[in-house]
Amino acid sequence: MNWFLDINSKLIDTKRSSRLCVICKGAHLLCGKSRCPVIVRASIMYEAVRYFDKLDVEGSSPPGVFVGRFGYPKVYVGPLTPPFKGDTRILDTPEYWFGMSIEDIVRFRSILLRGERLMRVDSAANPDSLLVTLQELAMSYKPVDLEVKLASKPRASIVLDDEVQPLGISAPLSRIIPGGNIYVDRRMEKIYYDRDIKAADAVFDLYRSGVSVSSIQKAFSLGIFGIGSNRRLVPTRWSITAVDSIISERILEKVKHYPPISTYLLFESVYLDNRFKILMMPSFWSYESIEAWYPKTVWNPDGRIPVIEGDWEGYHGKKNYAIIGGCYYAARLAVAEYLNSIMRQASVLILREIHPGYIMPVGVWHVREHVRNALRKKPIVCQSIEEALSIISSSLEIPLKVWVKHSHLLRRELYQRNIQDYL
Amino acid sequence: MLRFSLPDAKLWRYVLDAVSALVDEVSVRAGPDGLKIKALDPSHVALINLELRPEAFTDYECDEETSIGLSLPEMLKLMKNVKSGESMTALLEDGKRLRIEFVGEYKRTIRLPSLDLAVEEIPTLKVDFTVRARLVSRSLRSTVKEAETIAETIRFRATKDKLMVSAKGEVSALDIEYTVGSEALLELDAREEAEASYNVEFLSEMVDSGYKIADIVDLEYASNMPLKLTFNLINGKVEYYLAPYVE
User: Fold this and answer.
1) Domain presence at residue A251
2) Whether A271 and A368 share a structural domain
3) How many folded domains does chain A comprise?
4) What are the φ and ψ backbone dihedral angles of A162, each rounded to 5 degrees?
5) What is the pLDDT of residues A285-322, one digit of tens each?
6) What is the topology classification, in CATH, of domain B2-113?
7) Residue A264 is inside which H or E element, if any?
8) What would the pLDDT profile of B144-155 be if each residue is shown by its tens digit?
9) pTM of the full predicted structure?
10) How many CB atoms lie within 10 A of CB A259?
11) A421 in contact with B at a CB cutoff of 8 Å?
C-alpha cells in the first residue's frame, strides 16, 4: 500500500488544508471543490496500478513519448504504453479530448505506463538504438505494439501539470521491443533525414502539410528536427509551448497582411468549469489573455478572492516569455488559425474565469482545444465595444471594472483615441 | 529620374529610424520640392510627417512626382554598418529598384526593390494647439523614458510659466516640472491651462528617434487633444502626432 501513502503526501498542499482533509476525508467537500481531488486521483490510481504489477508490459503505444525536465541537461526519456493492445490513439491525442470529464481524462492517462531512461539532451544529435526506436515511435501515425522491459516494478504516482497532460505510473526502462512495423509518417521522415532544415521551419512545414499539433510536439521533444548537430531532446513541457509559439508566430506573419475585421466579434464557451470569452476587435493585430483563478481552484487553493493575471502583445509580437505560461501561446495558436481562416486581422482579447469545478490541471491542450472549439461556433456580432462588454459582463462573474483594470487592450480600446478622430 | 546625395549617410539612417518608430513599410514621395513621408501607425494612434527639401541634399534631381515603397527593417539592416562621414548617393532605377552607394573608406552599393504599396491619402490634422513648448530634446527624452518605467500613460499640464509632466503607476508616481527660463525649457506659450494624457510607449519611440535628429523639439498640445512633436532639420522637419488617452 506504499503507493497510496505516496499519493496522499503529494496531494496535500498546506498544513491548513491537510487538517481540513483529515476532518473531511472526502465526505463533506470542506475544501470547497466540487469533487474531492484526493479521492478522484486515488481511486483512479487504484484501478490502474493493478495492471502494472510486473516487469514486462505489452501494449500498443498510442504512440506516446515523454521527456522530463528535471535534471536538465540529463533528462528521463521513454515511451508511454498501456497494458493492452488495439487502437489506443485516443490515450495520447489531446485533439480528441475536448468535451470529456476530468475523471475520464485522468483515468485514461493513468493507464499509460511511462518507461524512463536517463539520457543527455544532446544524444539526439547522435542517437543510440533505443533513442532511434523512440524517435521512430514518435514519428508513427498509428499505434505501435511494444514490449516494454522494466528494470523494476512500476511505482504509482500521478503527475499533474498546468502545461503537460496528466501522467501516470512510471518505471525505469531496460529496453523496448517493437512487436511489428512502425508506420513512420512520411512527412516526418523526410524532415528527420533533412539535417539542414532549421527546427522552426520543420515545425511549420509539418503543420502546413496537415500533421496535428500534438504529433509535432512529440516529434519535437525527441529532437527529430533541426540542423543535425544541434538536435536536442526537449522536455515535453517546453516542446508543447515551443510548437504552439512557433506555429502561431508564423501564421500571424500572414494574418498581419489581411485587412482588419469590421465589427466586434464575441465567442463564448464553457468547459471543465472554465468560462472563456474571446473578443475580437476591429483593429490591427494585438493579443491579450487574462485568467482569473477562483478560490479553491488548483492555483489559488487558499485565496479568498480570485487571482487575476494576464499578459499581452502588440502588433510586433512578444519578446519575453508570457507570465501566465504556455496557455498564452496555446490560445494564441487557436486565435491565429481562426483569423487566418477568415483572412482578417483583429485585436483579440481572451478573458477566462476558472471556477472551482476545475479540480486539477489537465494540461495546456485544454486551452488550445477550448479556444479552437469556441471559435468554431457562430460569434455574437456587436457594433460597439460597449455592446460587446455588456454581453460579456452578463455571463462572467468578475465585474467589468476589474477586467478593465487588468486589461491593456480594453483600456486602449476604451480610452485611446485615434488620429482619424481629428482629421 | 530620381537621384539624391547626402554628405553624411547617418542622417538618412536617423530619418528612416524616425519613421520606423511607427511603421514597417512606407511610401516615400519624391517630387521637385523634395522627399516627403506621411504615415499612420498600424493602430492609427500616431502619425508621422517628414519632409526633406532639395537643399537638404548635396545633390537632388527629380523631374517628376514618383514614389518609392520601402521596407524599413530591410533597409535599416543594410544600413547598420554606415559610419559617420560616409557620403551616400541614392538612385531609383527604372522606378523599380533603389540603388544606394556609400562612399567612405571604401565604396559599398546596396540594392533594394521598391515595394508596390497602396498609397493612402492622409489629410492634415485639424487641431487648435493651445500650448506650445520649446524643449531640449535630450531632457524630454529622459523624462519620457523615466515615465515609461512606471506607467502606461504620461500626463502633461501647462500653466503660464510651467510645464508639468506626471506619470502614475500602480505603486509609484513621478512628477517633473519644467519652469520657463530653466535649461530644459526654452520657451512656453500656454493660452489655457491645458491637461492631457498620452500613451508613453509611443511617445518614447518618438523622442528616441527624434533626439538624434534635432537638439531642440517643439511640443504642442491642447486639453484632451492630440500632441505634436516637431524636430526641425536645417532643410526639413520630422513631425509626430499622437492621439490622446481620454479616461
Assistant:
1) no
2) yes
3) 2
4) -65, -30
5) 999 999 999 887 777 777 788 899 999 998 889 888 99
6) DNA Polymerase III; Chain A, domain 2 (3.10.150)
7) strand A264-271
8) 999 999 999 999
9) 0.83
10) 10
11) yes
The answer to the question of residue A165 being in a domain is: yes
Q: For B47, which residue in chain A has the nearest alpha carbon?
A: A419
Instruction: Identify whether A18 is part of a domain.
Output: yes
The answer to whether residues A135 and A275 belong to one domain is no
CA dihedral A147, A152, A156, A161 (to 10 degrees): -70
Among the three residues A185, A202, A218, which one is the final residue of a domain in this structure?
A: A185
Mutate to test the interface with A, among B45, B120, B225, B241 (most CBs of A within 10 A): B45
Q: Which A residues, 333 through 372, put their C-beta within 8 Å of a C-beta on chain B?
A: none
- From chain A, pick out residues whose CB is under 8 angstroms from the CB of B44: 283, 418-420
ipTM: 0.90
In sequence order, which residues have a C-beta less than 8 Å from that of residue A50 and are 6 or more positions away? Answer: none
Q: Check B123 against A411: CB less than 8 A apart.
A: no
Given a cut of 50, whether residue B100 has pLDDT beyond it is yes
Q: For cell 539612417, what's the residue?
A: B13
Given CB atoms, is A418 within the 8 Å cutoff of chain B? yes
CA quadruple B49, B54, B55, B59: dihedral, nearest 10: 130
Residue A70 belongs to what H/E stretch?
A: none
Let me know how long chain B is: 247
Chain A residues touching B123 at Cβ < 8 A: 423
Return the CATH architecture of domain B131-242. Box (3.70)
Interchain contact A274–B (C-beta under 8 A) = no
Q: Which of residues 185-244 of B touch A (CB under 8 A)?
A: 199, 225-226, 241, 243-244
Out of A185, A216, A235, a domain closes at: A185
- A vs B, Cβ pairs < 8 A, gives 51
Q: Identify the domain containing residue A279 by its residue range.
A: 264-422
Angstrom CA distances, B19 to B26, B28, B48, B172, stand at 8, 11, 7, 32
Report yes or no: A411 at the B interface, CB cutoff 8 Å: yes
In a domain, A197, yes or no: no
From chain B, the residues in CB contact with A422 under 8 A are 125-127, 225-226, 243
